[in-house]
Amino acid sequence: MFTKNDTVKCILHNKNWKITEKNAQAYAPSNIALAKYWGKRNAELNLPANPSVSISLADKGATAIINTIPDPQDKFIINQKNVFGNKHSARLTQYLDLFRGPKPQFYQLELQVNIPFAAGLASSACIFASIILALNNLYAWQLKTHELSILARLGSGSAARSIQHGFVEWDKGIRDDGLDSFATLIPIRWSEFCVGLCIFETKEKAVSSREGMQHTEATSPFYADWVEYANQSAGEIKSAILQQDFLRLGELAETNAATMHSTMLSANPPIRYHTQQTLDHIQQVKKLRQTGLKVFYTQDAGPNLKLLFLSSDMESIKQHFSNIEIIQPFHAVSL
Ligand code: DP6
């Protein structure tokens, strides 16, 4: 059985642990999956049961600033607040445990995150990706993009996709050591493509993605069907992106999210992330589509919705969803 430490050893075996840049800093965007990851072929290494496809959220994400400290424990500051003794700090410590080096090193890690925490907005994706990018700068490891993606995955599966901007595909891989499971860029720049964040709930979710996935795998009678469907759906979603076929992409992404949530609902006891507001917004999206507006939704492990549309419809979208935050993933980033 391969462990996280084995993965780290493989990738960092000839690397130096000399600090080359004090207070090393790095930014990683959050990402929204259009073809979802929900289920693992290996829980220790966060190896997914199916490939997934996402869009990175440009300037919505996390900046990590990291340095070593002489204290015998790590120090975490998240959005200007010291964080210790809770589940967030425990998860960060566990991740940093993988990167202590030959003479155990502790860190001060500051995170500036500009999306709500754990409300189904993929904050763990951008956090773990920004940490590994910052460590890469701290020690000047000069890791390759796929190596960074593998190391980010050890923190959170979806973080594998947050190493890059734009449309990204995360391969499930087939190797037991997971060294073939990393994310790569889908080579397309689709300037008109927009994502709208409809955030009506910023409270932390009751069931984390990790727990929710485990519970679905263990108890849903439809889990095997979901995995089969998700494997095929990811390929179809990728090809709709490559063809820039927005209607097809929207339909496929919406069905993918709905199928993931149906699978969760079939777990015992069911996992339900939607609230009345979620259902009302879904209803509104469907009604608007009937009037000819090309808008689709996707939903992750939380009640909030993400809308998919093209920039030509931006004004109508703003009129119908007054609190929406619009992201143009291909503006302000160079791919
Ligand atoms: C619904 O990446 O948070 O957002 O690997 O256990 O950390 P762990 O799970 P995580 O799960 C994300 C689930 C999702 C779908 C997706 O982003 O693909």
Please characterize this protein's 3D structure.
With 335 residues, the protein is α+β, with helices and mostly antiparallel strands. It has two domains: 182 residues, Ribosomal Protein S5, domain 2, CATH 3.30.230; 140 residues, GHMP kinase, C-terminal domain (Alpha-Beta Plaits), CATH 3.30.70. Helix content is 35%, strand content 23%. It is built from nine helices and 13 strands. The strands form three sheets. Strands 1, 4, 5, 6, 7, 8 and 9 form a seven-stranded mixed β-sheet that branches. A four-stranded antiparallel β-sheet has the order 11-12-10-13. Strand 5 and strand 6 form a beta hairpin. Helix 3 packs across helix 4 and helix 6 runs antiparallel to helix 7. The longest helix is centred in the C-terminal third of the chain and has 20 residues. The protein is globular. The model has no long low-confidence stretch (mean pLDDT 95). The structure holds ligand DP6.
Write the topology of this structure.
Blueprint: H1 4-12, E1 24-35, E2 40-42, E3 47-48, E4 52-69, E5 75-78, E6 81-83, H2 87-96, E7 106-113, H3 123-138, H4 145-153, E8 167-170, E9 183-185, E10 193-198, H5 209-219, H6 223-242, H7 246-265, H8 276-290, E11 296-299, E12 305-310, H9 314-320, E13 325-327
Parallel strand pairs: 5-7
Antiparallel strand pairs: 1-4, 2-3, 4-7, 4-8, 5-6, 8-9, 10-12, 10-13, 11-12
Helix pairs in contact: 3-4, 6-7
Bound molecules: ligand DP6.
